[in-house]
Design goal:
seven-stranded mixed β-sheet; 549 residues; alpha+beta; disordered N terminus; five-stranded parallel β-sheet
Length: 549
Amino acid sequence: MRTPPRDTPPRDTPRRSTPPRSTPPRGRDRQARLLPARPGAARVEGTPPSVAVVGAGIAGLSAATALAERGVAVTLYEKRPYLGGRVGGWPTALRDGATVTMSRGFHAFFRQYYNLRGLLRRTDPGLERLTGLPDYPLLNADGLHDSFRRLPRTPPLSALGFVALSPSFRLTDLRALNPVAALPLLDVRVPQVYDRLDATSAHAFLDAVRFPENARHLAFEVFSRSFFADPRELSAAEMALMFHIYFLGSAEGLLFDVPVGPFPTALWDPLAGYLDRHHAEVRTGTAVEHVEPTPRGDLVVASDRDESRYDGVVLALDSAGLRSLVARCGRLGDAPWRERIGRLRTAPPFLVSRLWLDRPVAADRPGFLGTSGFGTLDNISVLDRYEDEAARWSARTGGSVVELHAYAVPPGAARDVEQKRLLGQLHRVYPETGPATVLDARHEWHEDCPLFPVGGYADRPPVRTPHPRLAVAGDMVRTGLPVALMERAATSGFLAANSLLEQWGVRGQTLWTVPDRGRSALLRALATWRRTGLLQRVMAPVHQGVPPA
């Protein structure tokens, strides 16, 4: 009988030449927060309970892994033919006869993603299937460049370093800043940040702070659009949480890792084998159509193939999928819960264009570049700089594999027109691609990412539901923890598993997060004074040109 792997704290960069240790060293940030699992047995005793996990994205894979490790009989349903959800991949044949892997585009695995990286360590203890990119460069259409490579990683030195080194901050801009309005960024706590800022848009918040326009475009807007939303629609609370996680609250820095191969081979195929060794059943290409609670407390799951009864269910779906399933299941949860699920919104459509070019891009081009001011183009990735499959194609043909992202395309945009515009912006940013022939191309259009709108936090579901054996997981879920994007998905999946395991007296998954409050006691005090109004009263005479009493 296998025992579950030991819960281990986060580490920094992946090792490449030394064998993995059984207990990797702690991450760089000594203020990272440990969330121990509730006490319980290591594994279920006797006849194992059964759980259906619906959705095999990061959230579903995390839940299925934690449950299967502890002896639960897991059935993982996924309507697509592959694992990984929005971070999945599938084969496609190019015109030249090569079979390559297509996906929904670039994903950055930040070093703050402690729980996601813990999931990946199940099959890659040293994280050797990840590699670090040397920089996180940003380019504005006005010619301004920013970089996070040279910045100190520990706040507040990271923020001070960004202001000092960034060309987007000028002395006149600094004088115009409203530091009092910016104080909420210095002590972000969950869920309090939503109480304070969810009714404000990210755009309005930055207006109040009076951030310089160039800095806003080059840094803040790039970040907000990574949530697939225009800053005018994005909740300021979500933006503040984002800056806490990636910049102001964590000492892990803003550099990140990427998989060295396509997502299936580097990440999910090994995890599928791991689940199989823990006796989990993975049913890809199987859509769940209905979930029905029974009077005795269990749930019946009906798919497009069959119907089975389970002791517990985890719904690990995207916003649209969860909304659709719950709408078909009139006895699931209670009426207020179903109504809140029905109000979940989806972000605007996004486009990923992957191009196989007949010549390389310039040798000094980075593997990843964030852009601003180039129409809807949000970033450019040169896959053959870091992905082995693309590198092999490039070496064989002398060409390059380039990927373009448009994170928030205006609804109703003509697809062929937008695809041509992205290509035109590539030529503008990397002029050497202008004469290149596009040997092949794939364009992925999707509209299934969660929107975190102004005032929308109250409608987002928590992990626990009105039914004690039904849990929800995903990157739209309220966790009560400082996590976002892929890390929120992984964390919520583990929390969903924990909510079921504790009912069977089994110890769940230990979790880690970035610090759950501002790092400096002085800055936390200033933020508290601002919330109580004391700081505004003290500073009012200063703003009027009168020394304070």
